[in-house]
Amino acid sequence: IIPVAELNTKEKRLLPFPVYNLLRRLTPVRFDESRSTWDVFRYEDVHRILKDPAAFSSVRMLSDKERETILTMDPPRHSQMRALVNKAFTPKIISELEPHIRSITNDLLNAVLDKGAMDMVHDLAVPLPVIVIAELLGVPSKDRDLFKEWSDILVKGPEENTDEAFYQVMAEKGQATEQLNAYFAQIVEQRRLEPQEDLISLLLSAEIEGQKLTDKEILGFSILLLAAGNETTTNLITNAVRILTEKTDVQQQLRHNPELVASFIEEVLRFYPPIQAIGRVAAADIEIGGKSIKKGDQVVSWVASANRDETKFADPETFIIDRKPNAHLSFGFGIHFCLGAPLARLEGQIALRTIIERMGDIRLAADADLTPIQSPFVYGVKHYPVVF
Ligand code: HEM
């Protein structure tokens, strides 16, 4: 059995997929003693777990500073809250943001185009989603550096596999959450007095069975959007550019057929998923892949492995720009399917299309030293310097 700690080297974090392939073949469902967690690697098993919230619960222990959100709720409460926030994220509402997202993208690229070099992460992939979500929530974009700092901490994993490192990260997360709570409490208060055309005002006026949401619920949801939407979309954009530089034939294909950008982004999601794994807790004793999982056991579904399962995808190790069908699991599946998927897709498509239209041949800078993001579930790099 290869412990997941094996994956904790720089090289493996930059390219973990061969290890997942090996684990999927050797131990498709296995218990990792060091993390007291079941790991599940096959598409079929991951799919089954995600589509059965009654058997695999999303409710988990939260620290006293964390808030319960739809991400950590089961039905029926999840269904009620989700129906409410779905109203703010319909494909129609999201598609209306297109011209605005395009103009933010152009502004960000204007600042670097003359130089012929940029850090894709710092100059585009980080600011774009932060500006968009800040505006949707109705938060001044001047505060976006604060957001970035807080949302980074919320998804951070320990630097090393020690108790000290673990408690250090927990303390940082507690502090960031506290600061975010205070920050949003003030905005909620302002919007209650003077409603605007933004998400927080919409949440303030919403009702479930005649009941308004509590301030705590509104704060929790606002923080969830920051935590769930920023770094993931940043990594989608950076991972997409990474593919263009690693596979120059794909870059050529996209230049010749920019209208393939939507299916290109889907294939990036499958090939380099921003979130590699999704956690659940077994709600009853249950069998998966011939293994007996006990009620209360933690189960981690490795989406990054399922996306390369040869029983589901033809030629899974090949990046196929117009792959069809492409039933990747990178946005999850079932009732918790990513609320922000239409927004993330739109931002990814606009960013890559604008890059292809406005930048010549893009390459990774010769002196680049890639550092993977230090988080067990997030797949991305801290900087991606390119020349063009
Ligand atoms: C849920 C991935 C962008 C908001 C999820 C889940 C995944 C995911 C895998 C399911 C988690 C689970 O089943 O436990 C991603 C990826 C993104 C992205 C890969 C970018 C490429 C966004 C954006 C937003 C967002 C931009 C918001 C603006 C949410 C929310 C949930 C969620 C609120 C919880 C849904 C629920 O529990 O019903 N996301 N996400 N995500 N995502 Fe995203």
Question: What features would you describe in this structure?
Answer:
The protein has a 5-stranded mixed β-sheet. It starts with 9 loop residues before the first helix and ends with a strand. The chain has 16 helices and 12 strands. It has a single domain, classed as Cytochrome P450 (Cytochrome p450, Orthogonal Bundle), CATH 1.10.630. The relative contact order is 0.18. It is 49% helix and 10% strand. The protein has helices spanning 10-14, 17-26, 43-50, 77-86, 91-95, 98-110, 120-125, 127-137, 144-154, 163-193, 199-205, 215-246, 248-256, 261-271, 303-306, 341-358; strands at 29-32, 37-40, 56-57, 117-119, 207-208, 211-212, 277-282, 286-288, 291-293, 298-302, 363-364, 385-387. With 388 residues, it is α+β, with helices and mostly antiparallel strands. It binds protoporphyrin IX containing FE.
